[in-house]
Design brief:
Length: about 725
């Protein structure tokens, strides 16, 4: 891939940003005759400074790659595909949807927004508006697959309106199960995913003390002052131990807690038995090191405790996320009255930040739309994706008959792969918007080819408050669309137009929008097809800087004119350290019977605990088709301690079988001396569709980790999310 500036005649260099993942790296792209010919990081960008990754540098290849679908496809009765126009596809889909709604009701129409849909800045807003327009609650996203705990915890805990401390200027940071240097994703307050290595190195140079809790020795943990190499799934145990030390040694902000916090005494009682000795036995971290971590955290003045998706997917993810808020609250790691908020958001609503608490709010339960599965309900603005397969397969009123899959790949993303295959096959209509023939797209009735990011306008709506400074970037389409391609938002507008449905934007896009999110509002024009800019203007209505002004900047820009100082608060609300159920859940953790080695007996006779990992060269199931990525490897190796491999009489490169609650998968081994014995680490998003390939292809296609996962054996009682990390497995040689 060329990284130097092209000097070919007729070449235009245009600024944009990558939308391969949530990192949104600023780029310059050389364009010739409407096509991209070279891409590189934008060295003039004030935030990224030229940073890109291997994935983003594949955008030129993505434009006209041999795997790309550029014309809509319709599956015929014999299973073959017919190229049709987007107009014909939309006409036929609309007619089918109209008939199914009339026969089965609007609830039969469902959407799944995968991770990629979050990069298309209008997709979530328009898809939600469509479902509100037809009055269907069957709206699902990838958020409830891997991190519903983040919304659940905040809704029960409450929110400090002044906002948390940022990584910039912090003197201590606690990071749980998040490897930002590889994943390029971090919750606000963690290592910024925007040039993360640069941000981390600057923080260390400025004196920040890093505490990392992770079962693996990751790229981030190697930089840490303290690495608590926890046994998978035992993050809540370690956090409870740290909280006990902080309370016992009076390292908390008593004045802040007295004024803004409820439940301190019940918290003290709930963690009282999490002694350093017990934590060491159960979690596998040295007692003295855990005590040191608690003291370093407690003595810090600025910093934020954050967690990645890994511990969110492990057992008791809600408790783990809640305990992070407890640690931040006990030590008052918030912007106080008179503090300047580093980034109040450029695309966020107008309004002031106050030194007060936003009270907890109802986000799920009996007053919300109910799932037909396991007593679940809508949670944090969406139905639980863990129940989607069963909602399709279970007959009766409300059964889902139609699924619009946008930016997702359920076959390799959902737990219980074989059930997912049965569910996709049972649908009356499956429509996929995708750029290639994914494991899910092969089962679709219609495939509508999506635009890649260089072919569309976007603004970093979702990441607006993640930046450490008030930065944003309006990216215009810079190349000609390659074929009869469509954006996700266009699909919903076109469908609504054909069905005679009005689309109104209102409410939140993400669960946290109510506190710090993006403004939405307004009626989408239906008498004419709006431009993307018109749509985004409505999506970002009422923001601090008008979108027109942002678009005129032609590249990423820091709006230093936006200043926000936390004002005096007047609310009597308090943060809830022990809302109903939390203290009981903490005591349940302590009451679990563990073996002499500290492993909970409920995990049975399995030999290992399986954890996930991120790979720098792919993004979930995306990117594996590119030659530059293939050079990094064509499979997702199962990493294990060399002694564990020896015990199995296997070596790196050999095949093993991994059996778990959901099934069995074959994988390729790789020795990793820094991983704990009894742990196996396998990246997700690999493999294909078991209807179309078998495990003989594992060296070229990888292993589907979600085939091991059961969505029924163990799941969260609020979100329904299956246990997808710290999974008990049995490993045998092939």
């Amino acid at each position: 891939m060329p990284t130097h500036r092209s000097v070919q005649p007729g070449v235009e260099t245009k600024k944009t940003y990558c939308r391969f993942c949530h990192n949104y790296c600023a780029m310059e792209v050389d364009v010739l005759d409407g096509k991209p010919i070279a891409v590189r990081g934008d060295t003039s960008d004030p935030v990224y400074g030229g940073y890109t990754c291997l994935k983003g540098r594949q955008l030129v290849a993505a434009y006209d790659h041999e795997s790309r679908i550029t014309r809509p496809l319709k599956k015929l009765a014999d299973g073959s595909w017919q190229e049709i126009s987007s107009k014909q596809a939309l006409d036929e889909i609309a007619e089918k949807v109209k008939k199914i709604i009339a026969a089965e009701g609007p609830r039969s129409i469902a959407t799944y927004c995968g991770t990629y849909s979050f990069q298309e800045s209008a997709a979530l807003a328009l898809s939600r508006a469509f479902h509100e327009g037809i009055k269907s609650p069957s709206y699902y996203t990838s958020v409830s697959i891997d991190q519903p705990a983040k919304g659940i915890a905040l809704s029960r805990f409450g929110v400090w309106a002044g906002g948390p401390h940022s990584f910039e200027g912090a003197d201590v940071a606690l990071i749980v199960g998040c490897n930002t240097l590889i994943s390029h994703f971090a919750p606000y307050g963690g290592i910024p995913p925007f040039s993360p290595r640069q941000a981390l190195n600057k923080g260390l140079k400025d004196g920040i003390k890093m505490i990392v809790i992770d079962p693996r020795k990751t790229e981030v943990s190697r930089k840490a002052h303290i690495h608590l190499q926890v046994r998978p799934g035992e993050d809540p145990t370690v956090l409870c131990g740290m909280i006990k030390v902080i309370l016992d040694e009076d390292l908390y902000d008593a004045e802040f807690c007295e004024q803004f916090v409820d439940g301190l005494q019940s918290l003290r009682e709930a963690v009282s038995d999490f002694t350093p000795e017990y934590v060491e036995l159960r979690a596998g971290v040295p007692a003295e090191l855990m005590i040191e971590a608690a003291r370093v955290w407690g003595h810090g003045k600025r910093g934020t405790a954050t967690a990645g998706t890994g511990p969110n997917m492990a057992p008791r993810g809600n408790v783990m996320e809640h305990l992070l808020h407890v640690l931040n609250t006990l030590c008052s790691r918030f912007n106080k009255e008179g503090d300047k908020v580093p980034n109040p958001g450029v695309l966020s609503p107008m309004g002031n930040r106050k030194a007060e608490v936003i009270a907890p709010w109802a986000a799920y339960g009996k007053d919300f739309p109910q799932s037909r599965i396991r007593g679940l309900s809508e949670c944090c603005g969406e139905m639980p994706t863990a129940a989607l397969n069963d909602e399709i397969l279970k007959p009766g009123e409300g059964q889902i008959k139609v699924l619009f899959n946008i930016g997702g790949n359920p076959i390799v993303a959902f737990p219980n792969q074989h059930k997912t295959v049965r569910a996709m096959d049972a649908l009356e209509l499956l429509v996929c918007i995708d750029v290639r023939m994914s494991a899910t797209a092969v089962m679709a009735d219609y495939i509508l080819p999506g635009k890649i990011c260089l072919e569309r306008d976007d603004a970093p709506v979702m990441a607006d408050t993640w930046f450490d400074v008030p930065y944003t970037h309006y990216a215009e389409a810079i190349v000609e669309p390659n074929g009869d391609v469509i954006e996700e938002w266009e699909f919903y507008w076109e469908l609504a137009h054909r069905l005679g449905i009005e689309l109104t934007l209102g409410g939140s896009i993400l669960p946290m929008d109510a506190a710090f999110g993006v403004a939405t509002g307004g009626q989408i024009p239906m008498d004419h097809k709006p431009t993307k800019f018109e749509v985004l203007t409505l999506v970002t209505s009422g923001t601090k800087i008008p979108l027109e002004e942002i678009r005129a900047k032609k590249g990423g820009f820091v709006f230093d004119s936006i200043e926000c100082v936390v004002e005096k608060g007047d609310s009597a609300a308090k943060l809830q350290l022990t809302p109903p159920g939390i203290a009981d859940e903490i005591r349940e953790i302590r009451a679990e019977r563990v073996s002499a080695s500290g492993i909970p007996e409920k995990d049975g006779d399995y030999s290992h605990l399986l954890t996930s990992r991120r790979l720098n060269h792919v993004y979930n199931s995306s990117g594996q088709q590119f030659d530059a990525v293939k050079e990094k490897g064509t499979t997702n190796c199962a990493y294990m301690h060399p002694d564990d491999l020896s015990a199995l009489s296997v070596k790196s490169g050999d095949l093993i079988q991994i059996s778990g609650p959901g099934g069995i998968v074959t994988a390729v081994t790789e020795a990793e001396s820094t991983i704990k014995r009894g742990v196996c680490s396998l990246a997700h998003g690999w493999g294909f569709n078991p209807e179309y390939n078998d495990d003989d292809d594992v060296r070229e296609m990888g292993a589907s980790s979600n085939r091991i996962i059961s969505d029924e054996a163990e799941y969260d009682p609020i979100s329904g999310m299956a246990r997808q990390s710290a999974i008990p497995v049995q490993i045998t040689a092939v």
